[in-house]
Q: What sequence folds into this?
């Protein structure tokens, strides 16, 4: 498990492109037949991907967690961005279709990922935060994820926001998680942007074509930077940073948050005219 210490709002101003990418962007988490994880010091998040290409993949407990099993003091959301698959959680087996999300609560000891068809494998995106309370492991189907249409064709930001793990959906200790799908002809997400010092946020971009990229905008509102992100790239956004993006095609992204509260609307809006 890679450990990443996120630069603060002062240090990032002096960083070049390579240094920014090394610090805030994770592009090598998806690998066939493996589970790859990264520990981020912001809100002690763990991000990763499980790609069961043939045999089943058990969720490991890296020694850095100092725990008997991964979910001893944690919770995790597992979003399937591949083909049909299953997740075993102790004595329960969940069939997880594409774009279904399974919330795994604190205390679950055995977690194992598998694919229904090795030729069309499941790919599970994982986002985990510490948990001080136990909530029930819950499967949220794509059709039950409270889809909400936002934006307009005029502003090239027509999108559907789906909420999976939130106060009115699958309950959790602090994890909030959902997916936004851009409509064809639209490229912008989360614009105008916002910050929220009470939570960090993690973006995982997917359904990005091989020759396409997403320009992810980050940084303080008065001194922005950008990262070019390819398919399944993950960006960590501290509370002081904006997070918005524009792609060379329509795409999807999973957003996940952890921190002081679970209020989806708790954000500090930034007007476009304030961006520099």
A:
């Amino acid at each position: 498990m890679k450990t990443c210490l996120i630069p603060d709002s002062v240090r990032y101003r002096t960083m070049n492109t390579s240094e920014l990418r090394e610090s805030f962007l994770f592009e090598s988490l998806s690998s066939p037949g493996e589970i790859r994880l990264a520990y981020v010091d912001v809100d002690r998040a763990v991000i990763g991907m499980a790609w069961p290409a043939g045999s089943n993949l058990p969720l490991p407990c890296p020694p850095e967690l100092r725990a008997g099993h991964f979910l001893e003091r944690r919770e995790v959301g597992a979003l399937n961005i591949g083909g049909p698959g299953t997740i075993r959680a102790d004595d329960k087996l969940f069939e997880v279709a594409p774009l279904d999300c399974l919330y795994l609560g604190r205390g679950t000891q055995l977690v194992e990922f598998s694919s229904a068809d090795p030729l069309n494998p499941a790919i599970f995106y994982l986002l985990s935060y510490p948990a001080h309370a136990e909530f029930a492991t819950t499967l949220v189907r794509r059709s039950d994820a409270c889809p909400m249409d936002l934006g307009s064709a005029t502003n090239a930001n027509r999108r559907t926001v789906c909420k999976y793990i939130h106060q009115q959906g699958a309950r959790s200790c602090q994890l909030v998680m959902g997916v936004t799908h851009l409509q064809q002809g639209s490229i912008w997400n989360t614009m105008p942007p916002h910050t929220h010092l009470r939570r960090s946020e993690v973006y995982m971009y997917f359904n990005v074509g091989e020759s396409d990229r997403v320009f992810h905008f980050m940084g303080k509102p008065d001194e922005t930077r950008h990262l070019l992100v390819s398919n399944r790239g993950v960006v960590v956004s501290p509370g002081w940073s904006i997070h918005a993006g524009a792609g060379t095609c329509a795409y999807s992204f999973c957003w996940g948050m952890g921190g002081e509260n679970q209020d989806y609307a708790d954000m500090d809006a930034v007007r476009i005219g304030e961006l520099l």
User: Anything to note?
Assistant: Residues 2-274 form a domain with the Jelly Rolls fold (CATH 2.60.120.10). DSSP finds one helix and 24 strands in the chain. The first helix runs from residue 17 to 24.
